[in-house]
Amino acid sequence: MNDTSEVVRDIFWTHPDAVKMINALNIVFLMDNTYKANIYRLPLLEIVGVTLIGMTFYATFVYVEAE
Predict the structure, then answer these.
(1) Residue 50 forms part of a structural domain
(2) 50 is in which domain, residue-wise?
(3) Taking CA atoms, which of 21, 26, 41, 58 is between 20 and 30 Å from 48?
(4) Does the pTM exceed 0.85?
(5) Of 38 and 22, which is predicted with more confidence?
(6) Residue 1 resides in a domain
């Protein structure tokens, strides 16, 4: 495999407001991975944070090539 190829292998996405919440509320995070359930046939990793009053917020979404 050529490591210098210009192929996107992983995509990490988060919203700027989520970054602020991650920095302020960084005690509990839940991670869930779904396998090949999207049109790209890639695993989707979702990371969700929990606030002090028990509400959840999406921290980030990640498409990864492999585990």
Answers:
(1) yes
(2) 11-63
(3) 41
(4) no
(5) 22
(6) no
Terminal C-alpha separation, the chain: 17
* 59 contacts 48 by C-beta, under 8 angstroms: yes
pLDDT at residue 48, rounded to an integer: 93
Q: Is the pLDDT of residue 2 over 60?
A: no
Question: Are 60 and 48 a contacting pair, CB within 8 Å?
Answer: no
**Domain annotation covers residue 34:** yes
Q: How many structural domains does the chain have?
A: 1
Question: DSSP secondary-structure letter at 56?
Answer: E
Positive or negative, the CA dihedral 27, 38, 13, 56 is negative
Describe the strand order of the beta sheet including 44-50 as a list of residue ranges. Answer: 11-13, 56-63, 44-50, 28-34
